[in-house]
Predict the structure.
Amino acid sequence: MTNRVLIERHGAVAHVQLNRADKRNALDVAMFEGIVAAGEQLKADTSVRAVVLSGLGQAFCAGLDFSAFSAFASGGGSSLLARGDESPANLAQRVGWVWQELEVPVIAALHGVALGGGFQIAGGADIRIAHPETQLSIMEIKWGLIPDMSLTATTLRYAPLDVIKELMFTGRIVRGEEALALRLVTRLAEDPVAEALALAATIATKNPDAIRAGKRLLNHSLDIPVDARLRFETELQLQLLGSKNQMEAVMANMQKREPVFSDHWDDGED
């Protein structure tokens, strides 16, 4: 992972920070690689129970760096379109999609701007908390392009299709209040990073097995028929019932104390 992306730990919460403040966290190849590397690092860490994703400086992410765009347009960006065996997404798409590959909830804290690729990175999160003055845009049409950093696999899952079409066709900028009304963000906050960290800390106190199963349930259920959804609910619930962490949740509630959960799945069988 490059210094383009930093990871701070707050107990079981990992805070991922885009670290190119002088360029409003614009995306160059090093930033693409750093974001994906951060996601891969956290995927492998079972002690992480929630993730916050934010940008340092005056913006979340201003989208593609113009110099990187120039290199891409001249054929120098082929590495961004390379697709490996570890994911269905190519490198450019994984800056958004990698957050859905994580089993734990990811909360994006947005401020300043989230434009183009920045919008799509935020779209990969499970929850988006934005400052009221945040500017968001699907800006690729400005360059005669379509959004190709996983928007169809992420944003289409939470925002209305007609809204996405309008913003994709026009590239217009929307601010926090309108973004909330259009369901592009989950809620607004004057200090989105603090709000996101507080929410992540709350999530981290819950049964981590149930949290992971819940994310998997909701994400997978969008892609399967209703009868399969109902069976999948039961399958995951049976895995949780009687497990070590589920029993700890019950005992902690009965004993009116804070639960102490294990980071490793245990189905309760010897």
